[in-house]
Amino acid sequence: MLTQRANNVYYLAARKFCFRRLVGRSSCQLARTLTTSSVCSNPLQPGPSLKDFLKQPIAASVERDSDVPPYFDSLEARGANQRVFFEVYGCQMNVSDTEIVWSILESSGYLKTDDIFKADIILVVTCSIRDNAEKKIWHRLKQLRAMKRKRRDNFQIKIGLLGCMAERLKHSLLEEDRLVDIVAGPDSYRDLPRLLAISSSNQTAINVMLSRDETYADITPVRLNENSVSAYVSIMRGCNNMCTYCIVPFTRGRERSRPVGSIMKEIEFLSKSGVKEVTLLGQNVNSYRDSSSQESASNDVAKLAKGFKTVYKLPKGGLRFAELLDQVATVDPQMRVRYTSPHPKDFPDEVLQVIAHRKNVCASIHLPAQSGNTQVLDRMRRGYDREAYLDLVRHIRDILPGVALSSDFICGFCGETENEFNDTLTLIDEVGYNVAYLFAYSMRKKTTAHRRYVDDVPDDIKRDRLIRMSQVFRRRADELNRRYIGNREVILVEGNSKRSNEFLFGRNDGNLKTIIPVGELPVEEHSNFRKPIRTGDYIMVHVTDANSQVLKGQPLYHCTI
Ligand code: SAH
Ligand code: SF4
Ligand code: F3S
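^ thats the input. predicted complex w/ S-adenosyl-L-homocysteine below
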């Protein structure tokens, strides 16, 4: 799945602003530039005046709109060095989108801060997937408003609500006690400079238009954490699947794929910047189809494996996920490639073959099952039954024997009986997952389930089922992870362990968190030269212990994939 981060708010690290554009410079730098130009060039030539810089049009990608009041000069419509603080909730798509937002705002002269008390603008990137995700955000908005009121310059601080909650609740967000000044849905981030310009005159501004083709393909995301060894690359947006419980198709709109050329450019850039792991992102990454690509000869309609179906018409032709994955893997054989979230319906052998043959495409597959019961799966409109899912698991393990599997499950969906729920427990037990994300069902308005079914499983039963799912999952994950003991695993080191500076953590190919002690190691196997273990290094590790959550090991030597 796209991992839920509702509990982990990202307070994003500040990034040194580089004064690339004149409009982003401080007034003294601007003055210095003007002086320099008049001294170095012919002093009799008139240099540019301040007016010339202020009258530059708004960033090319952002359309000027008549909604911008005429009394705004262009400096106000630009960032004019205002500091933005981002607070990101929800899944990785929101993290990736925030990097697009930051790219757009940086081009418009905004600065970024990691100190909320110094911010002129606070942008909260939100999630609507379950009611408790939204409740947390409401609570936070109230705290932010209180904070804003305490500040002496409070009228100047603007609070913007971005992401899925903006799309779900639209105008009602502005009515709600004026908690926010700006509302922008996931497809309207290009419009943010204009929305911010409007809000600077104390008006509220909103754009929640969904688009059929927006992929932000021409915008190079600016990474929020440049020191991280891994990066997210969004390859598609939206979802056509319409699972009956899910709000995402309503908040993120129709499925559309980003052209392969723009993805490859970003991956090449990331590889040159030293990134060691990319995760391709989308709600259904394996339904990827770049129909603008000339590279794929196929003009056929995608075929689904026996036992899988969709509610929408399958696209024809175009470059597919297996081809994309293969191309991405060739950019840098020392850069790991992962992807999330795939849907079980789109696992043709070609994808499995790419994973089997490309060493840097990680052999870990997220296979969100949601339920183990055929009737519940049917009510959820997942497009497969229990048997088709189990057949797929067997097929995947035949081709990729060492694969690590992860999944998402929902308990307490409308009408779920105790017997139906037991099928989920037996499926978790039978398949055995290394990682699982387990949720109690939360009814969302607008979804088919809201129209068609009754949310009739009481909360205490949902809670009880969640605990029981977790127990079965943990027992099996513990067993599976213990099988790694004695193995040699290649770990990509990501940083210090949360618990102690004397330990580092990284991940193996199967995406399992692995803890190792800090220290120096031979630069390669059998070498007498040693160097310290650093973030971004590949290390061969002898696994000595494991539980349902982590592996622990003894680092042996520096290595490559
Ligand atoms: N496209 C991704 C899902 C993104 S949402 C996928 O299909 O894997 C992440 C997970 O949230 C889903 O897989 C599902 O398990 C869970 N989820 C979605 N809607 C939910 C709801 N209404 N209540 C509880 N969990 C939900
Ligand atoms: Fe939601 Fe289903 Fe689409 Fe995933 S595949 S985003 S669960 S509708
Ligand atoms: Fe992601 Fe939450 Fe939206 S899971 S797609 S941010 S509803």
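The chain has five domains: 1-40+50-54, 80-207, 228-362, 363-483, 488-558.
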